[in-house]
Amino acid sequence: MSLATNPLVADTHPTSELTTIDVDAVRSELLARRAEHSARLQNAQNQTITLVDNGSVDVGLAFERFSIDRSRDALVDIDAAIADLDEGTYGSCRTCDRPIAPERLEAIPHARHCIACADSAPFSTGDRRRP
Questions:
Q1: What ranges do the domains of the chain cover?
Q2: Cβ contacts of residue 67 below 8 Å, gap of 6+?
Q3: Contact 128, 73 (CB under 8 A)
Q4: How far is CA 54 from CA 41, 43, 51, 127, in A?
Q5: What burial class does residue 83 get, using C-beta atoms within 10 Å of its C-beta: 0-12 exposed, 13-18 middle, 19+ buried?
């Protein structure tokens, strides 16, 4: 279903301003980033196995575990953004439901929050999903 025919998309919703070409471009960018993070995740998992097999407990192992967490989080966010595209809700802040600035979405296509909500939210040190 195209965005133009999606009854769930209000005229004021940010996704309603996207053309089919824009949606395709955003989807392509998200899929490219998904592939990149999947490759990073696989590489980090392989490195972790190698470091553990070698008995290495050092900064390298900690970094690989951090990299695994970041890639997993990015994959979750990217999959959510793709689902939002399919549902016609892409570009809405998950906190305030206002449109996310196009510049922010261009920089972080899988952003879940507008700048105001991202800056004001009380993120814990364990919350890596600020975008």
A1: 25-85, 91-122
A2: 40, 41, 44
A3: yes
A4: 20, 16, 5, 31
A5: exposed
Q: How far is CA 65 from the centre of its chain?
A: 19
Q: What share of the chain is helix, strand, coil (3-state, %, to 5)?
A: 65, 0, 35
3-state secondary structure of 57: coil
Look up residue 117 and give its two tokens: 């909500």
pLDDT tens digits, the chain, 131 residues: what are they?
333 333 334 444 555 556 666 888 999 999 999 999 999 888 877 776 665 555 555 666 677 777 788 889 999 999 999 999 999 899 999 999 999 999 999 999 999 999 999 888 665 333 444 44
